[in-house]
Fold Amino acid transporter transmembrane domain-containing protein.
Amino acid sequence: MKMAGVTAAKNQHQVFDVSLPESGPKCFDDDGRLKRTGTLWTASAHIITAVIGSGVLSLAWATAQLGWIAGPSVMFLFSFVTYYTSTLLAACYRSGDPVTGKRNYTYVDAVRSNLGGFQVKICGLVQYLNLFGVAIGYTIASSISM
């Protein structure tokens, strides 16, 4: 039984709703996690913000350093490498069958299911070294910008 005063006071202080969607089989994927709600537009927005945030600011400087022939050639080469690695990563999303196989939610999961063994430790080490290097790079770049 709810008391009217308590319900009214609770609604006045409620900032946001963190309740899960209605339960049922249509709300969950085949592995028991909540279904993703991303669309082509949200994926495109994430890609654009990632590209603009990381590389576009230094693009003019890099082209000026390499010249008008080597600059666009290197950009084309790197775009091909990015495309190739993203297709490899997409192919490793599910291990086994590409439709019903087990999902790999992290890089380490993909390495574990495809390579296994010592390569998992190497992958984790490389990821942490990359994270450490990027943190140092952003720290130096932000201090120079200040």
Summary: Confidence is low (pLDDT under 50) at residues 1-9. The longest strand covers residues 94-95. The two ends are 59 Å apart (CA to CA). Residues 1 and 114 are 55 Å apart (CA to CA).
